[in-house]
């Protein structure tokens, strides 16, 4: 049998191929690859072992955490090099069973194995199973878990559904760059008492975030921003490059506070693409000279609301100075027309002002990208006299016609500008396939 060409490729190239072909969740395929050929084994094992996931034993579900920890310890003792592949640790926590994080000798032995100087742990996820969950003893958690294993190494931190989280998980992590706070709150400690309360925190420990994401402007998010404004920062935001948030009015207010703190560095503002979290207020971008990407969601719900749907977005765009760095604008549109007059509903909005502002922002740039992602609220097809498939074909044909017409007639300046690239995509299902209607390069 002739030798396959793939066996002559370098390990680095094979590893890059795996990066493109397989996700971390595709474990069956990765296991099969590992058993197929020795040359695939390292690439497969690196992905299979990249994350450790451990869960509290709850009153309703016992996942055998203790046995899982013992299996992992056995693997690491037999093959210590596997520890180098572990980059993410995911802990799902329940208030009734969390003492193991700071007090189980087997778990702490596992942490010692995956956080040695030659290993690569860089991301921690803490997820409350039954909001609100909390650790039983914050000080023991700091002393036995956070300080020896987590704060010296993590670069990315995600916390969801937890309360009474120690400040030090952020403030004592000097390498932390990417922070997500979701339905979470820190312990109640006055900022002025922070140094005395957690004496190991120093100025050099406090991280300088590059990416900050929050789901609601409450709890830990409020505390973080208040700490910066009070002069006792849990984390520095002056170097922040990316902010991700929902588009509801209270969140927009907090994003504006972040803009004030990070105006000299902020490059991307992304509001969540979930369509129920559309932009509900305008922002002031006048101080953002390095912003290059803006993503936002808009709801077209019918009537006067649709006519004014673009108002906050247009007012926001109007604040951008003529000499701006914006190169990409993505607008996700939820088009509800179950009770209205089909997709023509989208034509009612003030696209003329939007067209004018986008053209102004894109002026003198070699290339500007405008993307419109339109999610159509599919009408109730069960009451129709035709089959569901036939009805969907009618809806699709309407969408294609109306959206293409909208771009050509309502966005005439953008469509005529040679340097503005336009991509219009639509879907009848938020989980379905996105199809391209119009692409102007």
TrEMBL record:
It comes from Agrocybe pediades. The lineage of its organism: Eukaryota, Fungi, Dikarya, Basidiomycota, Agaricomycotina. This is F-box domain-containing protein. It comes from the Eukaryota.
């Amino acid at each position: 049998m002739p030798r396959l060409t793939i066996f002559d490729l370098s390990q680095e190239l094979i590893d890059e191929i795996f990066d493109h072909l397989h996700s971390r969740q595709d474990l069956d395929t990765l296991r099969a690859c590992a058993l197929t050929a020795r040359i695939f084994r390292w690439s497969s094992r690196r992905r299979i072992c990249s994350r450790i996931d451990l869960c509290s034993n709850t009153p309703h579900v016992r996942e055998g955490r203790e046995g899982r920890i013992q299996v992992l310890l056995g693997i690491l003792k037999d093959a210590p090099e596997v520890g180098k592949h572990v980059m993410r640790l995911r802990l799902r926590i329940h208030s009734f069973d969390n003492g193991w994080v700071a007090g189980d000798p087997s778990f702490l032995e596992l942490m010692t194995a995956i956080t040695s100087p030659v290993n690569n742990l860089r991301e921690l996820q803490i997820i409350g199973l039954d909001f609100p969950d909390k650790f039983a003893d914050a000080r023991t958690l700091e002393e036995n878990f956070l300080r020896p294993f987590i704060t010296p190494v993590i670069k990315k931190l995600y916390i969801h559904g937890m309360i009474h989280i120690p400040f030090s998980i952020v403030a004592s992590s000097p390498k932390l760059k990417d922070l997500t706070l979701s339905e979470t709150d820190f312990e109640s400690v006055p900022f002025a008492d922070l140094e005395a309360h957690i004496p190991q925190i120093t100025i050099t420990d406090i991280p300088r975030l590059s990416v900050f994401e929050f789901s609601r402007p409450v709890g830990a998010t409020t505390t973080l921003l208040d700490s910066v404004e009070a002069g006792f920062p849990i984390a520095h935001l002056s170097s922040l490059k990316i902010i991700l948030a929902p588009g509801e009015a209270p969140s927009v207010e907090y994003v504006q506070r972040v803009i004030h703190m990070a105006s000299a560095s902020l490059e991307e503002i992304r509001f969540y693409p979930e369509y129920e979290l559309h932009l509900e207020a305008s922002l002031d971008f006048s101080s953002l000279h390095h912003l290059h990407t803006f993503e936002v969601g808009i709801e077209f719900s019918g009537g006067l609301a649709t006519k004014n749907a673009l108002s906050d977005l247009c007012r926001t765009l109007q604040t951008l100075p003529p000499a701006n760095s914006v190169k990409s604008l993505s607008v996700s549109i939820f088009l509800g027309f179950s009770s209205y007059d089909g997709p023509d509903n989208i034509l009612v909005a003030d696209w003329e002002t939007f067209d004018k502002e986008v053209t102004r922002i894109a002026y003198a740039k070699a290339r500007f990208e405008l993307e419109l992602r339109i999610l159509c609220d599919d009408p109730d097809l069960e009451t129709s006299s035709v089959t569901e498939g036939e009805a969907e074909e009618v809806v699709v044909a309407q969408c294609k016609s109306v959206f293409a017409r909208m771009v050509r007639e309502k966005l005439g300046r953008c469509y005529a500008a040679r340097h503005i690239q336009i991509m219009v995509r639509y879907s009848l299902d938020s989980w379905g396939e996105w199809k391209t209607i119009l692409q102007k390069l």
